[in-house]
Automatic annotation (TrEMBL):
<dbReference type="InterPro" id="IPR035986">
    <property type="entry name" value="PKD_dom_sf"/>
</dbReference>
<dbReference type="InterPro" id="IPR022409">
    <property type="entry name" value="PKD/Chitinase_dom"/>
</dbReference>
<dbReference type="Pfam" id="PF18911">
    <property type="entry name" value="PKD_4"/>
</dbReference>
<dbReference type="InterPro" id="IPR008979">
    <property type="entry name" value="Galactose-bd-like_sf"/>
</dbReference>
<feature type="domain" description="PKD">
    <location>
        <begin position="68"/>
        <end position="118"/>
    </location>
</feature>
<protein>
    <submittedName>
        <fullName>PKD domain-containing protein</fullName>
    </submittedName>
</protein>
<feature type="signal peptide">
    <location>
        <begin position="1"/>
        <end position="19"/>
    </location>
</feature>
<dbReference type="InterPro" id="IPR000601">
    <property type="entry name" value="PKD_dom"/>
</dbReference>
<dbReference type="InterPro" id="IPR013783">
    <property type="entry name" value="Ig-like_fold"/>
</dbReference>
<keyword id="KW-0732">Signal</keyword>
Length: 270
């Protein structure tokens, strides 16, 4: 037993000697800071005719990675990407430059993508007139669609007639099925001859390829028709040929009745 204790004592002593002779590790030196990134870029149209295409070129410095965000849910990590927008409009473009230590810098601009030949005062053909199709409504005039103020009056091309629907409660839907699909980019609505409190005030326009899945195309929440027989033109972005278009009237100006002289869905420009 004494021999065993002696051996353990010797090992303990040796271990302590080694521990006492062990050199301390030098403290790690701090990593020097890299130069901070600076973000910058230029942008230019790539074609005098194609107003939707742009060349973006980074002029950033001191970076390892860059990320472009073009404002239309598209991104790129290239230094000089080309990008084509689907529609005109205002786009928030951001370039972020980051170095290997995680420092970053960003530059942002609002890019106005505009068709120089687009005229907001003009609209193309009404597809209801040139293509034709079938109108259905969720609730019709008491006399039916062919009555003097039935639903078919809203698509007859005559602003002097109107569709009048009694018992309006914010759930009126007018759906038009075209004979053949067409790409629409505008629509018009015309107020009727009397009772401004019956005018539509808030609505949603939608399109569908199959009559089942609907896509929101445009909406208004607080529109005012200042005059009788007033035709208002609305433009929206779209590049899909829909067979079905529907207008859901949510709000009028307070009446228990709804009226409208004309509704059209149109080609965007003549």
């Amino acid at each position: 037993m004494k021999k065993t204790l002696y051996i353990i004592s010797v090992f303990s002593t040796v271990a302590m000697l080694f521990a006492g002779c062990k050199k301390d590790k030098p403290a790690p030196q701090p990593e020097p800071d890299e130069p901070k990134p600076l973000a910058g870029f230029t942008v230019a149209r790539t074609d005098s005719v194609d107003f939707l295409s742009y060349q973006f070129t980074s002029t950033s410095t001191n970076y390892k990675d860059i990320l472009w965000q073009f404002g239309d849910d598209s991104t790129s990590a290239e230094k000089a990407p080309k990008h084509r927008y689907a529609f005109d409009g205002l786009y928030h473009v951001t370039l972020t430059a980051r170095n290997s230590q995680g420092y970053s810098a960003a530059r942002e601009i609002i890019l106005n993508v505009a068709d120089p030949n687009f005229d907001r005062t003009k609209v193309g053909e009404s597809y209801f007139a040139t293509i034709g199709g079938t109108l259905t409504v969720s609730r019709d005039n008491g006399g039916g669609p062919n009555a003097g103020e039935g639903s078919l009056k809203v698509v007859d091309g005559d602003p002097n007639t109107k569709f009048l629907q009694s018992g309006f409660s914010g759930d009126l839907v007018m759906k038009y099925e075209l004979k053949t699909p067409a790409v629409a980019g505008a629509y018009t609505m015309t107020s009727a001859n009397d009772s401004p409190d019956r005018d539509p005030k808030g609505w949603i326009l939608q399109g569908s390829e199959d009559g089942i899945r609907w896509i929101n195309l445009h909406s208004k929440n607080n529109e005012v028709f200042a005059n009788r027989f007033q035709r208002i033109l609305y433009h929206f972005n779209n590049n899909v040929a829909y067979k079905f278009y529907r207008l859901s009237i949510k709000v009028n100006n307070g009446s228990r009745d709804f009226q409208m002289a004309e509704w059209t869905v149109n080609k965007k420009q003549p």
